[in-house]
Amino acid sequence: MKYKLSDISNYVKGKIDVSTLNEDTYISTENMAPNKGGIAKASSLPTATQTQSFAVGDILVSNIRPYFKKIWFAEYDGGCSNDVLVLRAKEGISKRFLYYVLANDVFFDYSMATSKGTKMPRGDKTAIMEYEVPKFTYEEQEKIAGILAALDKKIHLNNAINKNLAA
Length: 167
Hints:
Elements: E1 2-4, H1 5-8, E2 9-11, E3 15-17, E4 26-27, E5 50-54, E6 59-62, E7 71-73, E8 78-80, E9 84-89, H2 95-103, H3 105-113, H4 125-128, E10 132-134, H5 138-166
């Protein structure tokens, strides 16, 4: 059995005043690292008075050039550019499981296959919500997410060790 992404998540539509943000709490496609590499400090804030908001546990996915695989699990509240999709797990769905579903290369391949444009392809927001997701109980979702989170921690630690050894 499978869900559609729309069955387990929604796009967040809230706004936040840019005046309440800083370079650490603003996310754009520019400060999202490719290949699921997380985020960096923003170089600047938008000139608009308001921008898209996000909250802890939301999943931010760059909607421009999906092949760069830019995704981040929000660890704090903030704001982001309109080129970043903000997805929120529905009641009864594990936030971390949703993140790992979206961080899968298969999702990015799907997003590219359904994207619009050639030079700067953008994910099709309607098609993205049609993406099929395996159906698991909440307990199974948490178990899967826990295993993947443990692997992510080991990868992060190994990368830090390699960086230290290189220095």
